[in-house]
């Protein structure tokens, strides 16, 4: 538990992805089973243990200290689990000396005890463990049992670390993942070379085939007849897996999201594995009408789905590809043959909530370029080009599939705040908040209101210049954030504008990035928020 | 208590704590005729007083920071050697905070008060340990006056630093430390942990480090990094003032892991605010347990609290059966912790 706690502690302060990977790998290499397996489950959100309520933690801590001292401490620290971890008195017989030693409970024991215990036994168990851990250990235990680690590690990142540890491709881990359960002994045995690779589960996620961005300069060398074109729909890429009445919906990175989409799952009465785009779509005559990405967001990352949500934002899958039909693995076949199989599959039994992403006819790249320029419809992000002869290969394979996104929208906005970046950028003000003008309370008064944050798009030289500009124009500091004089205009590129009640401006930009720095442009001539309103 | 209650002769005036029968201030915040200085941190030791009484080490620190003429006259007083200032016997006692740091024992007409300045109780290879003496009133700091502040053993924090160096051998480790005290203590702790590479320093840390070395503290080999290439600094430990961690200065370094050594690192939000990837909880101030233990050790019936988080400490001291009172001294900063 102490080693796991130290890992979480280090992760929580480490912003850089590669450093996080190194920390997790080091932990996996130095920790025995089953502890490392349970740690992996905790990091990937796969750990199933009973949760403790905040009120219980508070009452345990007050019992160890004093009502007044707890109140002033909580007020100062601001986080319940952390306050409890810190205020808990060191126990002489335990690890007052905070050595990650023999007295400290093992993560595996903690998890297994919790899984076997009744709710009424949890307080005594917790007290016993808290007495035997150091402050970092207590913090980690309390984070674990309140259900939110928040150390900035995604399931995908944790799986990548496992892949590095075992020196295999992350796709191999993803393909196995859903057939495995904590503490993943067979996975670690395989990766340590002491056992064979575990068998795949029939409901496993199959790594998705991903596209490279198209370099338009290379179009001239590409033969149009060797490619097929489709719209790039603006939802989230999903894999649909149905076997003998059991169904799974996976996101692009192999996270299972079935629970959030019972409407899709209910329509999955087939045997096979398909690839498509998850969208919000409503019936429209004989067709469906795709809603903007914003609507799909209302359905993502939900634990509980209400009837209202199902009615307001009905989910839909637009199919791109078929990987497995019944028992037949179609992945080695060329695209054209898979496409024919997909169309045949759909003709056999059209079903609600599914349709096919149509192929777009074209004879020259100019045809496609014109189509792409005209595509501003909701739900379209651009075009996809796929080689007619390409098999379905997991991962981002070179030279087979290309995404050709439509041109970005732009707005002239004013730099308002800057924050230091992380890792290699930690001495640079590299994260920016930008604002546009809005009418103020007084007549003729205009105020800047934030419309978005950007931390990419500039060159290394531009970053140096922006950093210097920020340091020279700071008017206020709030911790790591600097407020600057509102006098630098930057042209922001972004993919879309959405309504937002979280932002004062009422709008939120999708994927904003720095396009051009307008050193020449006076701030007063930057755009107004109304210019963004019109793009929604 | 045989004599008059210290309340009648030890008072808070605008410039700070004033000992009336001695005619001097202790750590005044603006220039005064006569001052007793507990230690060299800039919120306690200011330039421009008429006469200063302090330890020889603190005087040397003030001379480095403000120049030789930092005061009209200086009386360098050894620890535990009483001296008379008008009607008061003044004795400087080790405070264990930094090199030269002292508590001030005031004995006036049979009544004794101890002004502790800043202090800590754990062993520190760079200065003599805090000496508790019985008194009627103990004036304490409360920088870490909350039960959430319990500093872990130093060697655990050093182990964190050395372990991180093993995990990231191709990077350098940049540790933000205060120039006076923390810097040299971290160096000495590294040596105690068996670290025998040269320790690299930001130029601003050199002068005070030399003073420590001259005073006989074993800091091993150290050098300023100027003129070194990033490749030469891979794997090394470099110390710099906290402000330099995110400064342009750090860009010449090979992908530094930024660490910060301070008692505030105990609280995650504070550590995050400082942008530390590797927070090291190393403090030169008493933690919660040390504050309470010290009150028991000096066994003063009355404790005055000068600066820090007073509310929790007041409550706990009252529970110990002592009178506790908060002195409102202005100009104390929490920075040098």
Task: Give an overview of the whole structure.
The complex is a heterodimer of chains A (536) and B (337). Chain A starts with a helix and ends with a helix. Chain A contains 19 helices and 23 strands. In chain A, the strands form five sheets. In chain A, strands 4, 5, 6, 7, 8, 9 and 10 form a seven-stranded mixed β-sheet that branches. In chain A, strands 15, 16, 17, 18, 19, 20 and 23 form a seven-stranded antiparallel β-sheet that branches. Residues 93-102 of chain A have low confidence and may be disordered. With 536 residues, chain A is an alpha+beta fold. Chain A has three domains: 2-146, DNA ligase i, domain 1; 209-405, DNA ligase/mRNA capping enzyme (D-amino Acid Aminotransferase, Chain A, domain 1), CATH 3.30.470; 409-533, OB fold (Dihydrolipoamide Acetyltransferase, E2P). Chain B folds into two domains: 6-148 and 285-326, Metallo-beta-lactamase, Chain A (4-Layer Sandwich); 154-280, Rossmann fold. Helix content of chain B is 23%, strand content 26%. Chain B has eight helices and 19 strands. A seven-stranded mixed β-sheet of chain B has the order 7-8-9-10-11-18-19, with helices on one face. In chain B, strands 1-2-3-4-5-6 form a six-stranded mixed β-sheet. In chain B, strands 14-13-15-12-16-17 form a six-stranded parallel β-sheet, covered by helices on one side. Chain B is globular, with a radius of gyration of 20 Å. Chains A and B meet through helix 1, helix 2, helix 5 and helix 6 of A and helix 2, helix 6 and helix 8 of B.
Features:
heterodimer, A: 536 residues, alpha+beta, DNA ligase i, domain 1, OB fold (Dihydrolipoamide Acetyltransferase, E2P), 3 domains, 7-stranded mixed β-sheet, 7-stranded antiparallel β-sheet, 19 helices, B: 337 residues, alpha/beta, Rossmann fold, 6-stranded mixed β-sheet, 23% helix, 26% strand, globular
